[in-house]
Amino acid sequence: MGQEGPAELVNIEALERFLRERVPEAQEPLQVRKHEAGYSNETLFVDCDPHKWVLRRPPAGELLPTSHDVLREWRMISPLYQAGVRVPRPIVACDDPSVIGAPFYVMERVDGFVIRDSIPPALDTAQERRRIAEELIDALVEIHAVDWEKAGLAGMGKPQGYLERQVRRWAGQLDLTRIYTRELPGIDEVTEWLRTHIPESGPATVVHGDYKLDNVIYCEEAPARLLAVLDWEMATLGDPLADVGYCLSFWGPAGVQFESSLHDLNRLSQAEGFPTYEEMAALYEEKSGRPVRNLPFFVCLGVWKIA
Predict the structure, then answer these.
(1) Was domain 121-306 assigned CATH 3.90.1200.10?
(2) Which pLDDT tens digit goes with each residue over 121-138?
(3) What DSSP string describes the chain?
(4) In the CATH scheme, what is the homologous superfamily, with its name and number, of domain 6-108?
(5) Can you give the pTM of this predicted structure?
């Protein structure tokens, strides 16, 4: 990702004109700044006193035809918001790249705390850590409970063959990036194991695709409340247990230490009060009413994708 600032990513005057025409409350001058976190689509904070919004657009430069489709995110989160899922309130979308230089959408900015390597002081107790975990599971259950056909999401994915496509796609990504990345001993054996152990899927649901503790926002004050689920770039329709396994691949069994991006979340999840790895899976099963079968496959799939 480049080092473009707001002026390179957004024509602010054009954005002001567009919002004033489409959003009644957007009558004040805009303050725009780039959010530095994130590794794919660009995120910019847009302030229009007293309102606080987020603008999502593709990165600058030439893109592959099917990559960085921010309007696909819009088409996913808009029905989910109407269905009561904890996503930021969608404001407006624009498919005309001439307005700011790329298609984009705007959603409400949710104030809160993203848990990456620390927990807000008010939530850093055994009781609140338990609530953090339960809220994480509750929000995932809500996503998976959406009637995606009734919500108009039938065009957002092809549930049949979802797991096979996941393994095939990520194996292809692995092959393409081998010469650029560190050596991963045993990765080919893991890939082959996944190919030969794909389980049969149950009924399809909306799948977030990147569901983990640092892709949600919590209120900083007790009691712990999950306010919004973020980063819907990989959302589709498929096997809900893929989300469970991916989330728990960051959780990790007690006593197991992971490297790099897995380490901080794994370390936090072992603090007093957090449910164990097995208890998290049981919580999901209890709250969703969906049997958690073949969990080793789904966790292995999650860790393999992260690697």
Answers:
(1) yes
(2) 999 999 999 999 999 999
(3) -----HHHH--HHHHHHHHHHH-TT--SPPEEEE----SSSEEEEEEETTEEEEEEEPPSS---TTS--HHHHHHHHHHHHHTT-S-PPEEEEE--TTTTSS-EEEEEPPPSB--SS---GGG-SHHHHHHHHHHHHHHHHHHHHS-TTTTT-GGG---TTHHHHHHHHHHHHHHHHGGGS---TTHHHHHHHHHH-PPPP-S-EEE-SS-SGGGEEE-SSSSP-EEEE---TT-EEE-THHHHHHHHHHH--TT----GGGHHHHHHHTSTTSPPHHHHHHHHHHHH-----SHHHHHHHHHHHH-
(4) Phosphorylase Kinase; domain 1 (3.30.200.20)
(5) 0.92
